[in-house]
Amino acid sequence: MPxxxxxxxxxxxxxxxxxxxxxxxxxxxxxxxxxxxxxxxxTNMSSQTLIFTLARxxxxxxxxxxxxxxxxxxxxxxxxxxxxxxFEETLSVFHDxxxxxxxxxxxxxxxxxxxxxxxxxxxxxxxxxxxxxxGIPIRPKxxxxxxxxxxxxxxxxxxxxxxxxxxxxxxxLIAQDLTxxxxxxxxxxxxxxxxxxxxxxxxxxxxxxxxxLMAEAEFxxxxxxxxPNMDVLGVSVERxxxxxxxxGGTNLIAAAKEIGIELEHESISGLTDVSEMKxxxxxxxxxxx
Length: 289
Known about the structure:
By secondary structure, this protein is of the alpha+beta class.
């Protein structure tokens, strides 16, 4: 079928993607000539909506129902799949990482998946959900690598903003082998995963109260609660806000990968009722003998 002369000119001088915007009706005809049977496939692909990480986090924050004083409700969790043969070794690494203070809490849900074992562990964004539940307009900012020297967090060396990526920043950083969790556990110095959240500075007293409640429920990992308008671990915050830096729940996964354990992982994968989770000490009772 002959093309509109103007469309023909555009085909010669611009890409098909630009043509889709400028010449929508004519492009459908032109695409049949250029791509043939792939036209429908391209249309389906173009209709898929990108969901940025911040939107996914905020949706899950709204669903957090955890009450630390009663130890009931849903928390945000990460999911790990590991071969059954590697389960005990993985659990041992998780135990050491939790004991080192590099995880959110010692609760884990274990599910059998045939030749695999599924582990659900707490995500630090649970804190954001609980703070929101207490009326604090907290906003997750980004996830990154935190340099630790002699057991003191010094600064973020790398950070990806949640609003700017469709992939969880922590998953990207784990894939780049930028962490040194095991080094941190051995020597007190290394590179760990963490995230930064922001809240209005007038909410500081209430934030401290909620963090105390979380600590009593064994939800730990607060690295720094910043002062109003002051940088937190080298990262600036919005005016009239303060920053809250937390350890990443995925330090468990990074530590396991560092020693060569093969596993599959998805961060911020969903919500889990804490009543379905067990304490790490109950999962490996031999450590207590």
